[in-house]
Write a structure and sequence with these properties.
Layout (H helix, E strand, L loop, with lengths): L4 H4 L20 E3 L6 E3 L1 E3 L14 H11 L3 E3 L7 H11 L11 H5 L2 E6 L26 H13 L12 E6 L5 H7 L15 H10 L14 E8 L3 H9 L6 E7 L14 H7 L3 E5 L32 H9 L6 E4 L12 H8 L9 H10 L22 E7 L3 E6 L8 E8 L2 E7 L9 E5 L5 E8 L4 E3 L3 E2 L1
Length: about 475
């Protein structure tokens, strides 16, 4: 039984039900973008107790419980401490290690396993560029390819660099993208000539390990170790949009993005990068549904110790269910991952079971009015200032890079505006102070700009972004 958002806003827990697994319904699934994989609406996050395990908590039991519930999207990272090793322990219990006796290939192929790398370069330690991550972890940092192999070694191999034939991850994400300079590095060797004797970006190298090719010289065995490539971001929607727009190589299949009820109080994701990902048919995973615990007992800062792990199920004034419902009814989102502090035999006390039931919701189950009502709940957490990981609110931003070419006709081009707390509607074309036409807004899916061609003369032009409630932001004046 699914409660309405209005009802859920007044309770903390779902109604009691039997905790026997045969009574758990089959989980809802959604098509995960162009991957075609059907992911469950709830995935298991790789942090919380899988990374910072409090005393008395068994992280392996959390993973096993997720499998029992039928969850099929699993998240981890090279920088999540013991998270990947905890997955290894669970995978061995589930006979998911290729080459070992009883290997359950069917079960392995039924789940979507994602890891991440913070390294932007393909190989080796390389001199840092301003704003570009290189060696971010003291015990590794030999490049994104090394991180991919390290993940396989930790989850399926001996944790000494070896992994069995047949081991793979479904997706590797370029993790925590936040600066435009990082994008320049990531696309080196794709947008620029590939020089095998120098370093190049992670993307061209990871493509080799996706396709089983050796264009970069880093995959002499022509291994296929990853099925999909994507990226994640908590901070800057404009940077993430640029990452997608520059992908003319069919590389990006997935995006992990922060989304919760306080999103519109910041430079939001739901009206900026998520629609762009949706337009490119990229699978979208929502994270930070509870603001990394800052909606509840944790301070609004990055987690880094076991005491930061939230062990309760929601709170009396801010139930967890509507927070999950909000994220999963955000257009373009396919699944959400939540970190789990603990699991419990009592389903009313079990975070994983409660989150699982909350996630059984259709994409269009809530109206826009209901979603706005749920946003009011966000004020109960840190006065709405929970998203410490996200860029501050900036309001509607005007179109950029306006250019005017005059000949027999006048051609005006521009790049997308950035939405404030309302979605973009259209652009007004202004010539010598007079509106001459409008152009509907749509996600700018490539580096190709918007354009408008007319017979009008004029010496001064500007383009005005208009949002859904009539808010406006004017570009700079362009004189010809």
């Amino acid at each position: 039984m699914r409660l309405s958002a209005a009802a859920a806003a007044g309770i903390t827990l779902v109604p009691s039900f039997s905790c026997k697994m045969e009574h758990i319904p089959a989980p809802m699934k959604r098509r995960f973008g162009k991957t075609g994989f059907e992911v469950t609406t709830l995935g298991l996050g790789g942090q919380s107790s899988l990374q910072w395990t409090p005393e008395g908590v068994d992280p392996v039991s959390i993973i096993l419980k997720a499998f029992d519930l039928g969850i099929n999207y699993f998240d981890t990272s090279n920088v999540y401490g013991p998270s990947q090793l905890n997955y290894s322990k669970a995978f061995r219990k589930l006979t998911l290690i290729p080459g070992e006796e009883g290997y359950d290939k069917s079960l392995r192929d039924s789940v979507f396993l994602t890891t991440k790398t913070l390294i932007r370069w393909a190989k080796g330690n390389y001199p840092d560029l301003p704003g570009v991550r290189n060696n971010t972890n003291g015990d590794h940092g030999e490049g994104a390819v090394a991180d991919l192999k390290r993940s396989l070694s930790q989850m399926f191999g001996d944790n000494q660099g070896n992994y069995p034939e047949g081991a793979y991850v479904n997706m590797i994400l370029i993790h925590a993208l936040s600066r435009f300079e990082e994008i320049d590095v990531l696309y080196r060797g794709l947008e620029t000539p590939l020089n095998k004797d120098e370093n190049f970006g992670a993307l061209v190298a990871l493509r080799d390990f996706r396709d089983g090719t050796n264009i970069t010289g880093l995959n002499p065995r022509n291994e296929k170790l990853v099925k999909h490539i994507g990226f994640s971001g908590h901070y800057s929607s404009p940077v993430m949009m640029e990452m997608i727009r520059r992908d003319k190589y069919s590389l990006l299949d997935g995006m992990l993005v922060a989304i919760n009820v306080n999103d519109r109080r910041y430079l939001n994701m739901q009206y900026n990068v998520i629609p762009l990902a949706q337009a490119r048919d990229i699978g979208v995973i929502g994270m930070k549904v509870f603001s990394d615990g800052a909606m509840y007992t944790k301070e609004a800062r990055w987690s880094w110790k076991p005491e930061d792990v939230v062990l309760t199920v929601g709170s009396e004034d801010l139930p967890s269910r509507p927070l999950i419902e909000y994220a999963l009814t955000t257009p373009g989102v396919h699944t959400v991952i939540t970190g789990i502090g603990h699991v419990d035999e009592d389903p009313l006390k079990c975070q994983l079971v409660q989150n699982f039931y909350a996630a059984q919701i259709k994409p269009d189950a809530l109206s826009e009015k209901e979603r706005r009502e749920l946003e009011n709940l966000g004020m109960k957490a840190k006065d709405g200032k929970s998203n410490y990981f996200q860029m501050d609110y900036q309001g509607l931003q005007p179109p950029v890079n306006v250019k005017v070419e005059k000949g027999d006709k006048t051609r005006i081009t521009w790049d997308t505006a950035i939405a404030g707390d309302e979605p973009l509607s259209h652009y007004e074309i202004i010539a010598d102070g007079v509106k001459i036409n409008t152009v509907p807004h749509k996600p700018q899916v490539s580096t190709e700009p918007f354009s408008y061609t007319c017979d009008a003369g004029g010496k001064e032009f500007r383009v005005v972004a208009v949002d859904a409630v009539g808010g406006k932001a004017e570009s700079e004046l362009f004189k010809v």
